[in-house]
Amino acid sequence: MRINFKLYASLTQHLPAEARQSNRVELDIAEGTPIAKIIEPFGLPEKLVHLVLVNGVYVPPEERLSFTPKEGDVLAIWPPIAGG
Hints:
The protein is mainly beta and 84 residues long. Helix content is 6%, strand content 26%. A hairpin with a 2-residue loop joins strand 3 and strand 4.
């Protein structure tokens, strides 16, 4: 099944070079694959995987090992952002 995977801010460097400008890539994943397994091959530092959204809905850290996106979902990840 296919999902859209988006990384923001400093995390975009973990996407393939051709996807960095648009900050998104389409992924083919097996049905039932949890978020943690989807992002594993991208080598994201765990401390930078801060805000995880599926279709704009927050997925808390304790659910990332069990939550499984569905066909056509958008998985978006933001690092911690500081500002003032």
